[in-house]
Design a protein that fits this description.
200 residues; Tetrahydropterin Synthase, Chain A; four-stranded antiparallel beta sheet; single chain; alpha+beta; 2 domains
Length: 200
Amino acid sequence: MSEVETEDAEGGKGGILKILLIVVAVLVLVAGSILGTLFFTGFFDEKPVDEDPEVTLQEMEAEMEDTDAALALAPGPMSADIEQKFLISYYNFVDPFTVNVNGSKKVLQVKIGISTYHDKDTLFNDEEGAEGWVPRHLIGIRAQILKVLRSVRLEKLQALDGQDNLLEEVKLVINETLEKYEKTTASPIEEAYFSEFIVQ
């Protein structure tokens, strides 16, 4: 019986020894990978002694002074041209839009104006042969606006924000038409307005 107990005790010691060896090997492997990473990233490299913060600050100040001097010699800003580009421009559709109100015997007649911050000539020029985007696509734009106006119900027009919502839809369809045919990604029309609004 004592021989069996001795064999079990020796087997148990061997199992614990194996586990301890595996844990030590894993710890050595992890420590080695950490030290290797620090070594290759330059953690242990000597830092240059001549990197004095005062010297670096003086160099930066000298660069800033050189930049300020170069800017002083450059020509002044063209503020008049910039301001001119960002002035708002307006366009009124000459003919009114007249539709039957959806689900009603009433008639809606509106005159619509639009505005943009883009170049006025690019968008609104009426001269033949050099038409702006809106006059060039006037038929398509009017058709889309009429489609929006025909879908409006009387309750929507009488709602507190009904006209604002309708103008937002008008603006969206104008921008969609211009984006489709002029291949622009910006929405050039900033606002749409009713210059006349009659329901009778």
